[in-house]
Amino acid sequence: MPISIAIYGGTGIGKSLDVHRAFVGKTVTLLTERGGLNSVIAHLGITPDCVEAFDIKDPIGQAEKLIDGRVKQQTKKKGVLVVDSGSELGLRHTDWLIQDRGKQVQQAFYITQIGLRRLMRKSQALSSVSVWLFHEQDPETKPSGAYVPGGPSLPGKLAKKAPYMFDMILRAKWDMNIEGDKKRVYECDPRNADYIMKDRFGAAKETQPMNLKPIIAEIGKRLRRQ
């Protein structure tokens, strides 16, 4: 069965690097950020198969055409589709709608949300594993007093709907021990009220080293038992 994963976290923490390390030679990346694979090339010494989606006009529409065409063809051979990053794609599409198409902010958010959700469904149907990377959005309290938990950086209220769109949502963060040493970890605690997380398989720990490979292996074990 197809597996869909969302990973969000601060810029430069190593999301792209970890995903490509977990699936060496098996990924096709829909790249929406220039230089997004620099760390992968530098640290792993490989250049992953990549389809660039940098167009400034109708970014989601262009990405959708690529998924229906070149990405679909390459993913059939590889099996893992990475979208890097969903946040940048949503931001650029919203900006395009406001600046070039004259849409109001809320209308632009709504249109972008529909486009991203459609793109997510397509990517998930296309590959055995789809991984969407996002920047992190901090928790905030609205002027109305409503509390909004942190999560993937997405336009409008789409972040709140993320648990309905992915099988697993991991938060990449820095963790500091009592000695003051920092290490990269994945956090996955669906009970956490401050950040959006999900694990449909029960394969991830609340906190564990930032390494996707054993998580994918555990998912495979659990699916085989079903």
CATH architecture: 3-Layer(aba) Sandwich
Q: How many domain regions? A: 1
Biggest sheet record = 10 strands, mixed
Report how far apart the termini are: 12 Å
In CATH, what is the class?
Alpha Beta
Mean pLDDT: 89
Helical coverage, percent range: 25-40%
Overall shape: globular
Number of strands: 12
Oligomerization state: single chain
DSSP strand content: 15-25%
Order of helices and strands: EHEHEHEHHEEEEHEEEEH
Class computed from helices, strands and strand pairing: alpha/beta
CATH-derived topology: Rossmann fold
The rounded Rg comes to: 17 Å
Number of helices: 7
Low-confidence stretches: none
Condensed summary:
The chain has about 230 residues and is an alpha/beta fold. It has one domain: Rossmann fold, CATH 3.40.50. The chain contains 7 helices and 12 strands.
Could you explain the architecture of this structure?
The chain is α/β, with parallel strands linked by helices. Helix 1 crosses helix 2 and helix 4 runs antiparallel to helix 5. The N and C termini lie close together (12 Å). 39% of the residues are buried.
Indicate the topology.
Blueprint: E1 3-9, H1 15-22, E2 27-31, H2 38-44, E3 49-52, H3 59-78, E4 80-84, H4 86-99, H5 105-126, E5 129-137, E6 140-141, E7 147-148, E8 151-152, H6 158-161, E9 168-176, E10 182-187, E11 198-199, E12 207-209, H7 212-225
Parallel strand pairs: 1-5, 1-9, 2-3, 2-4, 4-5
Antiparallel strand pairs: 5-8, 6-7, 9-10, 9-11, 10-12
Helix pairs in contact: 1-2, 1-7, 3-5, 4-5
Q: What are the main properties of this structure?
A:
7 helices; 226 residues; ten-stranded mixed beta sheet; 25% strand; alpha/beta; Rossmann fold; globular
